[in-house]
Amino acid sequence: MLKKCLVYVLYLSIAFSAANAAKLTGVGATFPMPVYKELSKIYFEQTKNQVSYSGGGSGKGIASISAKNGDFGGSDEPLKPEVLAEKNLIQFPAVIGAVVLGYNLPNIKDLQLDGNVLADIYSGKITRWNDAKIAQLNPNLKLPNNEIIVIVRSDASGTTFNFTNYLANNEQWRSKYGVAKSINWDAKVVPVASNPLVATMIQKTAFSIGYLEYSYAQKMGLAKLKNSNEEFVSPDPVSFSAASKNANFSSENDFYKILTNASGKGSYPLVGASFILLHKDGKNNKEVADFFNWAMSDKKALDATRALGYEPIDSQTSAKIKAYLEQKLSK
Length: 331
Description:
This is Phosphate-binding protein. By secondary structure, the chain is α/β, with parallel strands linked by helices.
């Protein structure tokens, strides 16, 4: 009888724990989606708390959390403090990744590009692969006389925001197009929604080029990009880490920081942080904070983040984030 009672108590305890486990939902940027999904699996294994994240683009992430739909939003475009105040939001960086230029050129490896040439491609001034400006950057390559198939994001995308930040070093690009999540491209473009679909389109379209997050781009050619030190740098974890070391995030401006064109030898120029947005009135803010504080400190989580080609938030910044969340969520 005693044994049956103990089993029943244990069953009730497990059932109570399962019923009270957190079930969090987030939506937004597809840039960090692979790492958030992997971290959610590990977190569930360790805590039985469920975190689900779906894409849709940074614009959707901002709009959803502003309307208090879901528990958190993801955006690769940081919001300025005055915008956060207007929308009653708080934000912090959760992971650092990189935008890469994937291409599909038969028998072509080690393609080198810079911001000026890319600005000309995406504004429609350069339309063929063997254009003199591309050839000048690649004197050892035999470039084909084929039209460049230009692939872009159709949704309001933080990946587009970071990419156009790189292009904005070009004065003509900056004055005409600026930096934005959505662009009215003058080039003849193929628009698709989300990083995964950009990857698919590049892989199946010969002579194409597109910008996308690094973790989606493992099965295609990736261009070396010229950085602010005038070096052509390969997109890889070493160059991403070099670029992220001097981020210097500050809680005083709600961690607003754009990381593109980072200085320093060997720095990849198209690195960006992906941010989490919380509504100040969110009912599960503490549970969301617990998840991301865990993600920035747990060894298994940090290893998984790096294995997917992202850079974790450094320990100094994560300590700032923890203090910031404790302050903001206690009000």
